[in-house]
Design brief:
284 residues; alpha/beta; TIM Barrel; ten-stranded mixed β-sheet; globular
């Protein structure tokens, strides 16, 4: 288990590549040390139908984040660090408790910056009987080298594909490399698990599910993202076109982000995604 977290000595597990020694208490962009921090864990019934089923998706919300979008709807968790530090054994216990509650999967929300701790916890949990699928619910700002360490560990990848424009990513996340990073990361995720598959009850067992939050004034670049998914992955990729943008956190400081999404903007985004050939859209 120790070898799983040794990489934190000079942490470069995410594209920020801070290089800090998290094992000795240093903090980088994600403000997280040796121990993962968890805000809450519980069955979640607001996720995609393939994850929720009848007993919910077993979500674990990790505190802090490596991307830190200025408009984050979980601002208190991602930016302010609401939550508390947990040991690998405690994290494993949360997973087992969610399985005992009947959850169809373990849904790791914002896991990128604590991937080594997650792997260490999973080793413990699986020895004690954890058997449900593992969902990696990330921002898409993931290094391919880290994802390769998760091959065979993660069953379902559920990344966001937030922006196509480096300028927009820079203004909101100080991450102008986000589009390039997300493209490479999602291709690696698909390489590992393929298209989303479900069992006879319609519950996801393995595969890729992409989330795309539609932004005001087409700031997300829906056409280009849809084209990339259709051409580079597959038109049959399961994609959730999400309409729930609202100004949160520091959104008002970025031009274009200070208002809610219009219904007409959402409908236009759905039409655009379909026009690029995507066939398995989840539309609200």
């Amino acid at each position: 288990m120790a070898q799983q977290v040794d990489i934190l000595k000079a942490c470069k597990i995410c594209p920020r590549k801070c290089g800090v020694n998290r094992l000795s208490g240093e903090r980088g962009h994600c403000k997280t040390g040796r121990q993962a921090m968890v805000c809450r864990f519980h069955p979640h019934f607001g996720e995609e139908p393939e994850l929720v089923g009848t007993h919910g998706s077993g979500t674990i919300f990790f505190s802090f984040c490596n991307l830190l979008c200025s408009f984050c709807q979980n601002f208190e968790i991602s930016h302010l660090g609401e939550g508390h530090a947990v040991t690998d054994a405690q994290l494993a216990g949360f997973m087992l408790e969610l399985q005992r509650m009947g959850c169809h999967n373990i849904n790791l929300v914002t896991p990128t910056h604590v991937a080594p701790q997650i792997v260490a916890a999973l080793e413990i949990a699986r020895e004690k009987g954890l058997a449900v699928p593992i969902v990696y619910n990330s921002s898409g700002y993931d290094r391919v080298s880290t994802l390769k360490r998760l091959a065979g560990v993660v069953d379902i990848y559920m990344p966001d594909f937030k922006f196509w424009s480096p300028e927009t990513a820079d203004r909101t996340c100080q991450a102008p490399d986000y589009p390039d990073v997300a493209c490479k990361a999602i291709l690696e995720m698909h390489r590992q698990v393929g298209l989303l598959r479900t069992d006879r009850a319609g519950i996801a067992t393995r595969g890729l599910l992409i989330r795309h939050l539609v932004l005001p004034e087409n700031l997300a670049g829906t056409r280009e993202i849809s084209q990339f998914i259709a051409e580079k992955i597959s038109p049959d990729t399961r994609v959730n076109i999400m309409p729930q943008y609202r100004p949160c956190g520091m959104a008002h400081k970025t031009p274009g982000f200070g208002r809610r999404l219009k219904v007409t903007e959402y409908l236009a985004a759905v039409k655009t995604a379909r026009g690029q050939g995507l066939t398995r859209l989840y539309i609200r």
